[in-house]
Each structure stands twice: as C-alpha cells, then as structure tokens.
Amino acid sequence: MTNHERNKKILLELVKQPHNNRCADCGAADPEWASYKLGVFLCLNCSGIHRSLSSRVKSIKLDFWEDELVEFMKASGNASNRAVFEKAVPVFYYRPQENDCSTLREQWIRAKYERMEFTGETKFPPLPYNTGFYEGMLWKKGKEKMQFLKRKFVLVEREFTLSYYNKENVSRECPKAVISIKDLNATFQPEKIDHPHGLQITYQGDDHTRSLYVYHESAQEIVTWYNAIRAARYAYLKTAYPTGTDEELIPKITTNYLKEGYMEKTGPLHKEAFKRRWFVLDSGNRKLLYFKHHLDAAELGVIFIGTEEKGYSVKECEPKNARRNKWKYGITVETPWRQFVFMCEQEKEQKEWIQAIAQVLQRPMTPQDYTSKQGTTTDIECAMKVL
Description:
By secondary structure, the chain is α+β, with helices and mostly antiparallel strands. It is built from 11 helices and 17 strands.
C-alpha cells in the first residue's frame, strides 16, 4: 500500500466517526472535504465558502494528503473544533442547515471562524443581536409596486415590537407600522425577492397575514437583523410560555415555509374558471395561504390544515367540470367545510405539494394550533372569497 493510499484510508475512517460524519458547518451527511487549517470535515458547498475565506481545503478522496496533515486531522476533528468555535452560540441564534441559502451559511462560517463571535470571549460593545435593541435602514418593497425604497426599522425587544418609518430621522415621524413580535416570522427568500440577501417578514395584521419584503446590501447586516428578530422572538416566547423548555420553544422562534409555488385554483362549486395563484404552506401554523402574486403584501385566502381524524385529507384528482384549467395535475384538499381543487403544471410539483400537505396532516394538533385556526376559511367565507 502506498503512502497516498494509506492516508486516504485513514481519512475515510476518520470521516465515518460519529462527530465527523456530518459537515461541521451545515450538518450535511457524508462530507468529502476537509479544512486542514482548522481540522474539520466539510461538505462540498461549505468547503467552497472556506476556500473563499483563504482556508486551506482538500478533497478527502481526490487530493494528496501529507503525513503531517493527516496527523493533524486525527488530533482535531469536528467535535474539538466545535468546543472552541461554538462554545457560546446564543440559544436563539440560527444554525444554518444544508438546504439553507448561501448567505446564511456563509455568515455562520464567517461568524465562527473569521469574527470568532462564539468563543465565549467578552465582546465590547456587545454583538448587535444580543443588545435587545436594533435599528437601521433596509430596502423595503412598496405595498403595491415592485420598487424597493429605503426605510428605517427599529426593533425593541423590551416592548416586543418591530417598527418601520419612511424617513431616517424617526423623532419627527410616526411609524408607518408597529408590528408585534407575538405573531412575527422571518425567513430568507433570496429567489422570491430576487436578491441574495432577501428577507420576508410576516405578521398578523387586522384580518390578514401581512408580509414585508426587505433586503440589505450587506450580507452580515441582514443576518444580524434576522438573529436580532430571533432574539426578540425568543424573549417573547419565554415570557408567553414560562414553563416551556428551549427544546420546545426554539423551533417556534422562526419557521421556513414547507413549500411555495404557483398552482391554479377554482371556486367552491368546482365549475368556476381556474386562476393562477401563489401558494404558501406555513406548516408552523398549519395554514395554506394563497396570493394573487408571489410578492403581495396580503393573502387572498387562508385554508387551515388540520388532521385526518378531524376530517382533513389530500389526494390526487382529475377535475371534470371546471373551466379554463391549463394545467393537468390536480390536487384535492378536503376540509370539514369544503373541498378545494388545485392544479399543478408538472407532475413533480403535484407530488411535492401532496407530500408537503400530508406531512402537516400527520402531525398532531397542539392547543396553539386551535388558536391559529381562528380567522381561516370557513364554509360561509368560501363562497365569498376571491379566487
């Protein structure tokens, strides 16, 4: 056996160990790359980010490894690295997963290894997401137009509010909106907003779910906003549910939507013309929302997704009476009040929607879910809703 073959075998054994068999940064399974500067095993995507930071990266399988580098990897590994660089990650701070956008993953890696934010050393002044107050300018999409304009945002954890203003000098202006942290959600939407740092902020306003679409030119700044919002949400949840454990509360801080995309929708009689609508499956609140366009500020309607034992179901269908349906792959969502019929353009999308909705159907309802159900579509509202 050659020296190269022996070292490759050692590395392949190391990467099978429990602490090394997932990417050190995003948790992707079976990493095939490693940083021999840090001594961690990485997936392909995270290795590319490390390379852009001038970290020394090699393929476990394809590159030649010198003996001293292999010995360093043996003495290091993901667990010992995490003990140093993730020693003091705030409980509310979002740890990106492999399917998260590149902005989140890159800033997580930079925060750990470049800015060393989580080593436990005292920071003067405190990091922005730890202060309980944050303000700054963000580009916000107009309510009716696609134009983005600069707006001043102010987050006050003590009051559990996020406000925004049309002008930077807030002392001379009333806020355009004061948003309660109670019902707020934030999720990265780079493709939807068509900006790599795009963030969608959703909250409950009047009788509708309202959405703000914002971005910042700086990746670090928008991720700081995201984690400052998460800090305020965590503080609110600790107040609202004082007996709740972190294991219970952390998944409730913010949620990514289970699925989004266009489908065609017909009316309650199933004879109306199909119309193209943008759908969002909010699994956290068990709601399927639909909009006229993907960047609308408010939804046209909301459908609550309960459980099968409560009379909810989803399946494929072939509608026969509805008019002008251009797409051919049908879905029926059954509720105790109405049968909804949607059409997908591709069979793949049909199956993905059915699988996503079924995932919500199979999850038991909580007391909070019954509260979330209020304000969603009923049988009377169905006949009055805009298609």
